[in-house]
Amino acid sequence: MSNKDKRSRIIEVCSKAIGKMPFQTKDGKEFPVRGYYICPLCKKTFNLRELSNKNGEVLTLEDVPPKSLGGCPIIVTCKKCNSTCGHDIDNWLLNELELKYGDKNQQSEKTDALLNSHGKKVHTKVRIDKDKTICFDIKSKTNPPNAVDEFVKSVEHDGNNYNIQVQLHIKRKKRNVQAARIAVLKSAYLYAFRKLGYYYILNESLTPVREQILHPEKDILHNTFIIGDQDNMPTKAKDGVYVASYNSYEFIVVLLTFIVPSNSYRCRGVVALPYPGLEEDGLHLYHDILYYDSKKERRHFQIQGPAKVTVRNGDGTIIYKSEG
Q1: What is the per-residue pLDDT for 26?
Q2: 35, 160, 202, 279: which one has the fewest Cβ atoms less than 10 Å from its Cβ?
C-alpha cells in the first residue's frame, strides 16, 4: 500500500469516528459532524471536501516512533505539527539516544585540530575510532597550497613515535534533554490516539499533554511523564497501551520501543498519560501522583491490562469501541 493510500485509509477511519461523536453547540444541542478530520496534536479541524489533490498534503502521515528511530506511519497529523515537532523535539531524541546507547557514544565526533611540526602547521580533524585509536584526517583542500606536503616532510619520527604538537579545538555536541523527553511523550500520545481514538484524546484531561508537546520550551508537566526507561521497566510487557495503577490511582501507560540507527539497539520507554474524566485538566496525575524529587524513589506502578474505550448509546448499543 502506498503512503497516499495509507493516509487516505487513516483519514477515512478517523473521520467516520468523528461522525459518530456527539458534538454540541453553545445551547447544548447535539449535531453530527461528517467529512472532517481533527489533527490530534493541535486539534485543528480540516474539511475533507476542501482538500484537493493539489493541497492534499496539508494532512501528512506521522511515523510513531519517528522513522529515524524505527517507527512506521500509523497516524495522520497536519503538516505544520508534523514538521514543527520533527525539527523541535524529534531530532533531539535521535541525538540523545545515539549519545546514550549508540555507537557514537564510543566515537567522538570529528573535532577541529591544529598540528605543528617545527613551525609547519596543518589544519585537521581528529576522531576516536571504536578501538580507541586516535586518527587525524588531513585534507589538502582545507589547508594552504603545499602545506600538507611541507608538514609531512618536517615530521621527525623514531619508529612509530612522531614528534608533533597538537592543539585541539573541542566543539561539544549540543544536547536538549527536555526536548528529547517531550519527543518520547509525543510518540506515546500519538500511539495512544491510534489505539483509543478521539473519545480518549479529546478529553480535557489530555489538554496539558498537548500543550507540553506543542510548547517544548515550557515546563508544564515537570518531566514526570516518563516513569520508566531501559533500566527499570516491565520487561515482559509488549509495546502497547495499558491501564496502570499506583496505590489506588489509575492512569494510562504507553510502552514503546525505539531503535537506535547506528547499531539497531532497541531501547524502551514507559510514558504515563491521564485517564480520561478523572481530572478536569489532567495535571493532577503529574503534579501530585507521579511527581518526585531527587530524594524520592521513582514511583512503582502495576499494569492492570490493555486500555480500551467503549462508548454506548442510552439503549446500550455500542457507538464506538477502541482497538485496545
Answers
A1: 55
A2: 160
Buried b or exposed e, range 230-253, using 16+ CB within 10 angstroms: eeebbeeeeebbbbbebeebbbbb
The label of the residue with cell 621527525 reads 156
Output phi, psi for 257, to 5 deg: -110, 135
Which tens digits make up the pLDDT trace of 190-219?
A: 999 999 988 888 888 899 999 999 999 999
Spatial distance between the Cα atoms of 177 and 179, rounded to a whole number of angstroms: 5
What is this structure's pTM? 0.76
With residues binned 3-state (H G I as helix, E B as strand, rest as coil), the percentages for the chain, rounded to 5, are 30, 30, 40
Q: Please, which residues have CB within 8 angstroms of residue 47's CB and are 6 or more apart in sequence? A: 35, 36
Nearest to 266 by CA among 224, 226, 229: 229
Contacts of 258 (CB under 8 A, 6+ apart): 65, 69, 70, 93, 97, 184, 187, 266, 267, 268, 269
HSE-up (13 A, CA, CB side) for residue 137 = 11
Task: For residues 253-267, give the mean pLDDT.
Answer: 91
